[in-house]
Design goal:
Elements lengths: L7 H5 L8 H14 L8 H8 L6 E7 L9 E6 L4 E5 L6 H8 L3 E5 L6 E5 H23 L5
Antiparallel strand pairs: 1-2, 2-3, 4-5
Length: 148
């Protein structure tokens, strides 16, 4: 209990690798994409919200939930910084809750020389559904110099 032992959290994470400041800065810059943009009820609202954050963000695609476990998502591009982001809202519906609760671990190959890792089965299924839809578009953006 951290309340009774304020140093418990620090001891628990003592052997963790330190996070580079640049990684923290990149994450903090991405936070405005998460809310309210991820939860925008329509494409027009998402575009309006994108214009309010730093950068030159533009809406590329706004997809509702689809078959095969595909969650709703938004693809946005910052033309100035040459960044692209796939924005996926968190738990919103009973179906999302079922995905959250089907937390069976699945072993995932991380690619050449990177070994294997573990993923949440339901979230991996949703990610694969999105990749089937826009994988080639993301690859094209990356080939054009965007950080995805």
């Amino acid at each position: 209990n951290v309340g009774l032992d304020p140093e418990a959290s620090q001891r628990e994470h003592a052997r963790c690798k330190h996070v580079e400041l640049s990684a923290l800065m990149e994450l903090s810059e991405a936070l405005p994409l998460a809310t309210p943009i991820a939860y925008s009820p329509c494409a027009a609202d998402a575009q309006r919200q994108l214009r309010l954050i730093n950068g030159a963000w533009q809406l590329v695609l706004s997809e509702p939930a689809g078959p095969g476990g595909q969650p709703p998502f938004i693809l946005a591009v910052d033309k100035k910084a040459q960044r692209a982001a796939v924005i996926i809202p968190g738990t919103q519906t009973p179906t999302d809750l079922v995905t959250d609760l089907s937390a069976l671990p699945v072993r995932v190959d991380l690619g050449l020389g990177r070994g294997t890792g573990w993923a949440h089965r339901g979230m991996l299924r949703q990610a694969c559904a999105i990749v089937r839809l826009i994988g080639s578009l993301l690859e094209r953006l990356e080939n054009d110099g965007h950080s995805v």
